[in-house]
Amino acid sequence: MKRLVILGAGESGVGTALLGQAKGFQVFVSDKGKIKDKYKEVLIHNKVEWEEEQHTEAKILNADVVMKSPGIPDKVAIVKALLDKGVAVISEIEFASQFTDATIVAITGSNGKTTTAMLTHHVLKQELDVGLAGNIGDSFAKQVLEHDFKNYVLEISSFQLDGCVNFKPNIAVITNIVPDHLDRYDYKFENYIASKFSITKNQTKEDYLIYDADDEVILEYIKKNTIQATLLPFSLTKTIENGAYLDQDNIIITIDNNQIIMPTKNIALEGKHNVKNAMAASTVSHLLKIRKQTIRESLENFQGVEHRLENVLKINKVQYVNDSKATNVNATYFALESMSSPTVWIVGGVDKGNDYKELFSFVNEKVKAIICLGVDNQKLLASFGDMVDVIVETQFMSEAVKIAYKIAEAGDSVLLSPACASFDLFENYEDRGRQFKDAVRNL
Questions:
Q1: What is the pTM of this model?
Q2: Is 139 labelled a binding residue?
Q3: Mean pLDDT value of segment 364-373
Q4: Domain containing 182: what range?
Q5: Is 103 assigned to a binding site?
Q6: Where are the alpha helices (DSSP H) in 92-231?
């Protein structure tokens, strides 16, 4: 009996434990922190052996295969010890994908991947049996065990890709690549780029790679490296023969001489970046033979993603916008780009080696005040201190929102778009976004 050890008892860890057990593995789950009650109950109910607040080497190093949570870096001692012994350390995506014959659409990128994944799933589910998993929703492994959908849309982070060996999606999407998480890639951008492109490493010409042809980083990589997959680029500026492009207000998608035209006028999500997300989702849908009418209607009635440029409330003619999901500079760039009124900007958190230069023009043009919400705000103060009249620091969301309320005048917007990770003051970006919304509702 093969021994499967799982490091990290979150959504992906517990899902993998259940699938592993069902497939005849001897399973052991180990978490360095405390395991949440809801996950503990599942492990106990299914008689899976587990431990918390420690990693017992004797029970881990004898594994045949190890699935580690994407949040655990490779530099951690227990992972190093496993790799030194030659034990395979893989991600949930790699483990679960070997137990399904489903058609897999895998979406990665620095920004836009959640919106693109949710939008793609929203279109496909109108006509296909399809699950949504990966970095989002219920664990992929658990869905393979309980539903085994005929199709999956997977939102996949670079950390999950790093743990993939044989994973081979039928359709891969790369939304864009900008510097992010460089702390996990020895501060080398090229390592992070290679990680994103590993999504296509096992693809053949029967498979497809959909990507943003306006992204210099992506174009450069494709030029220098051999990619086996059939390429389907999308662009807002160029005319594309095979793939998608924008012609005035229409998205034109061509695949094997089969063309469809989608008007963008009524797309539910605003902003240029969302036209790109719509292009990616429509290209996938066209590949999977979804009717044009269905694609169009789905793009028009899609509700959007929580914590991504989410309009919360208007109070005294001031619009409060929750963009807590903006955990890097490029995401905040899109947020500030889409602001059409003077903005009070709440920013800050765990800086992942950010370069704020690309935001300067927007800050000069649109931002009237900055509220720094982080444990360490030095870099923000140094970057933006001279650009705005008002810049203040706080470590409490409720206080940040109260200060914003005092500064903002009728016609202004208050934007939470942190450009940083959230782990210094919050559990995660969802917790940060919910606290923001609660604070706004309590004004």
A1: 0.80
A2: no
A3: 95
A4: 94-301
A5: no
A6: 92-97, 113-124, 140-146, 158-162, 189-197, 216-224
